[in-house]
From TrEMBL:
Pfam families: adh_short (PF00106). SUPFAM superfamilies: NAD(P)-binding Rossmann-fold domains (SSF51735). Belongs to the short-chain dehydrogenases/reductases (SDR) family. Gene3D superfamilies: NAD(P)-binding Rossmann-like Domain. InterPro entries: NAD(P)-bd_dom_sf (IPR036291), SDR (IPR050259), SDR_fam (IPR002347). This is Short chain dehydrogenase. Transmembrane segments: none annotated.
């Protein structure tokens, strides 16, 4: 594996459609390699990957349900890090756009404790033991 090149790899959660798709494609236009996550629509995710690869950038789609907190650690250790090594010859991501989420079932000010915890959970990222070496930028949106 070659040494990590700072500033080359971006992870976009929810990158198969909507704002996430648009961000992933525009990031690739800037010359960055992109890993996207998707919850269930692999066909849409594969379409984004294909479009990015046509631009000459590396791209990969990995499944991740961000609503299940316990998915984060195995996602990073068992899926993302091996994929970075195998497909990108990289050891870390440089940028994160955390776009995936779910629409909150209640308004912030009227939410029950359980609903409030769900809202907070959707914007919290659990990193593996070794976080990225550089700054990670987070963007959250409800589509």
């Amino acid at each position: 594996m070659k040494p990590h090149q700072v500033g080359n790899t971006t992870l976009v959660t929810g990158g198969s459609r909507g704002l996430g798709r648009d961000m992933a494609i525009n990031i690739a236009k800037k010359g960055l390699d992109v890993v996207i996550t998707y919850q269930s629509n692999q066909t849409a995710a594969d379409s984004v990957v294909s479009e990015i690869k046509k631009m000459g950038q590396k791209a990969l789609a990995l499944p991740l349900d961000v609503s299940i907190y316990e998915n984060y650690e195995p996602f990073f250790s068992d899926k993302l890090l091996p994929a970075l090594n195998n497909s990108f010859q990289a050891s870390a991501i440089d940028y994160l756009i955390h776009n995936a989420g779910q629409i909150a079932p209640a308004l912030f000010e009227t939410a029950s404790i359980s609903e409030f915890k769900d809202m907070i959970h959707m914007i919290k990222i659990k990193w593996p033991q070794t976080p990225p070496k550089d700054d990670v930028y987070t963007h959250c949106s409800n589509q």
